[in-house]
From TrEMBL:
The keyword Aminoacyl-tRNA synthetase does not apply. It comes from Punica granatum. Keywords: Acyltransferase, Cadmium, Metal-binding, Transferase. The lineage of its organism: Eukaryota, Viridiplantae, Streptophyta, Embryophyta, Tracheophyta. Coiled coil: none annotated. It holds the Pfam family Phytochelatin. Its EC number is 2.3.2.15. GO terms for molecular function: glutathione gamma-glutamylcysteinyltransferase activity; metal ion binding. It is an enzyme of class 2 (transferase). The keyword Metal-binding applies. This is glutathione gamma-glutamylcysteinyltransferase.
């Protein structure tokens, strides 16, 4: 009985030259000797095969992000933070990518959302000579990589639009090495740079735009330590529009006299589930992975998170928000922003989210029950005698049981009567990193022009002084600018402009 399906394709040669052929090996050795394969080593270390036929853009991007050693600040599986195709969903739902593929502009957007620096060009915006300069630049160092979006037909290959990274350059023959992520179909291969340009200089029928290339580099600033914006909840579209478009109009048409009124206007129509839009980046691990101690790396990240929280609470805006939330002017819809939630409720919520992260089901509704929530103190694996608080729970999801640890920044745990190394919650009060902290971070992240509609000039100056990022400590400034970049990118997604505007956020 015949077995249906395809086993690889024969690489059309010419125009391509198989990387593993004698001619391909000679090109490789020549390029190494010429010093134009420096980017190859990092890329080949993280080379992967796309897991779905339409995931070439996602596989290419996760490969490049890992090669650049960009920390995703979230877990992939087990204790590991790692970029995987399944994590690249902030600009397009994975199911849609699986069915239809992804556009050039949305891959650019994904790279920016991941915290990378991106220079992107369609062929209509640049020249083949400029493209060659970018390829040469990336071939002599491993700090940046070029990703190409091209049409396979130009190389006489089957298929249509495709993404792959460029792994090296041979100056003598003016050829580039394509590390094709569809390894089930074609092996890595050399092609003439000018022919790759022709393959990029084609039109994507879905967007009506030319294809092109992007150079992806490590960010000068690390992505957010404590907060991140999420588009996994269905309401993100409306929240992004409210913050970017509606708030400036409300401030323009309302007669505001003081800061409390400004905050009140922003909060009055704030969607009740906005906390699903701005989320805490938690330190989560399976209980069996962590043992009875905290590593130096974990301790360092906790200290950084704690410092960000402290810096948020030291801002002038935080004090005004705290005053507003404790006043009668605060509406009932914001009652969830107070820090008075009981221990079990907060612990259950955080541990359920942690279990979802570890299971790769972030944003799902599968977590049904959280049992045995407690706080325990663990020692670090150095000589520091100061213990670290760990929130532990047993989470039930369907038939599965998961024991989860969430490492808690010290400022979120108040010890009333002291805590032993046991498992009881005792006199502990656990504060979730939401409420006044999250609202402060969100308002600081709004674009400066948000407040320009305030008519009272003295109040406008006071507001600008409170939200000005230049006045913030460096660590908090980086955190807020990261959120602002995310908001800018999500607004572009919401307006469906990612394929029209490839530029990075200017903040």
């Amino acid at each position: 009985m015949a077995m249906a399906g395809l086993y690889r394709r024969v690489l059309p040669s010419p125009p391509a030259i198989d990387f593993a052929s004698n001619e391909g090996k000679k090109l490789f050795i020549d390029a190494i000797q010429a010093g134009t394969m420096e980017g190859f080593y990092k890329l080949i270390s993280y080379f992967q095969t796309q897991s779905e036929p339409a995931y070439c853009g996602l596989a290419t991007l996760s490969m490049v992000l890992n090669a650049l050693a960009i920390d995703p600040r979230r877990k992939w599986k087990g204790p590991w933070r790692w970029f995987d195709e399944s994590m690249l969903d902030c600009c397009e739902p994975l199911e849609k990518v699986k069915a239809e593929g992804i556009s050039f502009g949305k891959v650019v957007c994904l790279a920016q959302c991941a915290g990378a620096e991106v220079q992107a060009f369609r062929t209509s915006q640049t020249t083949v000579d400029q493209f060659r300069q970018f390829v040469k630049k990336c071939s002599v160092s491993d700090g940046s990589h070029v990703v190409s979006s091209y049409h396979r037909a130009t190389f006489k290959q089957t298929g249509t639009g495709h993404f792959s990274p460029i792994g090296g350059y041979h100056a003598g023959s003016d050829m580039v090495l394509i590390l094709d992520v569809a390894r089930f179909k074609y092996p890595p291969h050399w092609v003439p740079l000018t022919l790759l340009w022709e393959a990029m200089d084609t039109t994507d029928e879905k967007t009506g735009q030319q294809r092109g290339f992007m150079m992806i580099s490590r960010p000068r600033r690390d992505p957010g330590l404590l907060y991140t914006l999420s588009c996994r909840n269905e309401s993100w579209n409306g929240i992004a529009k409210y913050l970017a478009d509606d708030v400036p109009l409300l401030l323009k048409f309302e007669d505001v006299k003081d800061i409390k009124k400004v905050i009140g206007i922003v909060c009055a129509s704030l969607p009740s589930d906005f906390e699903k839009f701005i989320q805490w980046v938690a330190e989560v691990r399976r209980a069996e992975d962590g043992g009875t101690s905290i590593s130096q790396e974990e301790k360092g990240r906790l200290a950084a998170k704690d410092e960000v929280l402290k810096q948020v609470q030291e801002t002038g805006l935080y004090k005004h928000i705290l005053d507003f939330l404790s006043s009668s002017a605060c509406c009932r819809r914001l009652s969830s922003l107070t820090d008075d939630d009981n221990f079990h409720k907060v612990a259950a919520s955080i541990c359920c989210q942690g279990a979802e992260i570890l299971a790769g089901k972030t944003g799902s509704a599968g977590c049904s029950c959280c049992q045995e929530t407690c706080v325990k103190c663990l020692k670090t694996d150095d000589n520091d005698n100061k213990p670290v608080a760990v929130l532990s729970a047993t989470v039930l999801s369907g038939q599965n049981e998961e024991k989860v640890d969430v490492l808690v920044p010290p400022s979120l745990v108040k010890l009333g009567c002291g805590v032993s190394n046991g498992t009881g919650s005792g006199c502990i009060k656990l504060q979730k990193p939401a409420g006044s902290n999250i609202l402060t971070a969100l308002l600081l992240a709004l674009p400066p022009e948000t407040w320009s509609g305030i008519k009272n000039e003295e109040l406008l100056r006071e507001t600008h002084g409170l939200v000005c990022t230049e006045n913030l400590p460096p660590l908090l400034q980086e955190e807020i600018l990261h959120l602002r970049r995310q908001l800018y990118l999500l607004k572009k997604c919401q307006e469906n402009k990612v394929d029209e505007d490839l530029s990075a956020p200017s903040i």
